[in-house]
Structure formats: C-alpha cells, structure tokens
C-alpha cells in the first residue's frame, strides 16, 4: 500500500538554498520549490536536519496595525501541494526555520534536510548554504 501512495504522490524539490547567518545566530531559513508530480495531494507536515535541534514550517506575513505595517512570521502545521502543482518556499513567503543550530554553517556546504509528508513519504534533499 505504501508503494501505491508513493506512486500517486511524488514530491520533487527544485533548486533551493539555506541562508548563511553569522556564527552567533542560532536560527536560519531554508528555501526551495516543492513540486507534486503525482495524482494525489501532498501534505508536508515537517522536516528534520542533523544541523539543527528542530525544523518548523513557517509563512511570512504582514499586517497593518494602527497605520503601521508589521512584518512577522507564523508557524504552520502543514503545507498542502496540489496534484501537478508546486509551492515556492522563498523569502517573504513559505520557508523552513532551522532552529537551534548545533554549529555555525559554512558558505557552500550542503545541508541535509529530510522533508516529512503526512502519507509517510520522506524526501532527503541537500541544500547549499548561501549568502543572499
């Protein structure tokens, strides 16, 4: 049955990078495009990486309060990717927060991140650390 689910929902990561932060900063963000090449919806429910204590899904938002624009981000329980669709994880939108970095990241190194889907699919990706 798991093989059938994988055949129906096929996640693919295109591009991607992890933001380089100064060594004293303990959190950073990862960006990429997540594509669903399958025939059923995909639900991304989390991620993990050996370089951080935890990884969480977030979406940037802005709102106007008392005439002032306030920027922030909100944690998410999941991100849905429709069949044949894609979701861009990019600055100002969806992203993964790598929280509690266990060590400073180096420019150009590759960070392994495992994306976790509701149907049990796990997708390992390697994303370069870049200053953008």
What percent of residues are in strands?
Answer: over 45%
DSSP helical segment count:
1
Q: Major beta sheet, specifics?
A: 10 strands, mixed
Compressed to H and E, one letter per element, the order equals HEEEEEEEEEE
What sort of overall outline do the alpha carbons produce when their principal axes are compared? globular
Radius of gyration: 16 Å
Distance between the termini: 42 Å
Structural category is: mainly beta
Low-confidence stretches: 1-6
Q: Indicate the mean pLDDT.
A: 92
Measured as a percent range, the helix fraction is under 10%
Task: Tell me how many strands there are.
Answer: 10
Give the helices and strands, then pairings:
Elements: H1 2-8, E1 11-19, E2 27-36, E3 42-48, E4 52-65, E5 68-76, E6 79-81, E7 86-89, E8 94-101, E9 110-117, E10 122-130
Parallel strand pairs: 1-10
Antiparallel strand pairs: 1-2, 2-7, 2-8, 3-6, 3-9, 4-5, 4-8, 9-10
Pick out its properties:
1 helix
Describe the fold and architecture.
The protein has 132 residues and is mostly beta strands. The protein has 1 helix and 10 strands. Strands 1, 2, 3, 4, 5, 6, 7, 8, 9 and 10 form a 10-stranded mixed β-sheet that branches. The longest helix has 7 residues, at 2-8. It is globular.
Q: How do you describe this structure in short?
A:
The chain contains one helix and ten strands. The chain is mainly β and 132 residues long.
């Amino acid at each position: 049955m798991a093989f059938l689910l994988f055949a129906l929902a096929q996640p693919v990561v295109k591009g991607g990078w992890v933001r380089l932060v100064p060594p004293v900063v303990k959190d950073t963000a990862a960006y990429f495009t997540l594509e669903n090449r399958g025939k059923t919806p995909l639900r991304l429910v989390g991620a993990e990486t050996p370089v951080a204590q935890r990884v969480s899904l977030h979406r940037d938002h802005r709102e106007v309060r008392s005439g002032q624009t306030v920027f922030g981000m909100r944690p998410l329980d999941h991100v849905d990717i429709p069949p044949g669709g894609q979701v861009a994880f990019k600055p100002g939108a969806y992203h993964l927060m790598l929280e509690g970095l266990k060590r400073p990241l180096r420019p150009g190194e590759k960070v392994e991140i495992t994306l976790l889907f509701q149907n049990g699919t796990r997708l390992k990706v390697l994303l370069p650390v870049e200053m953008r």
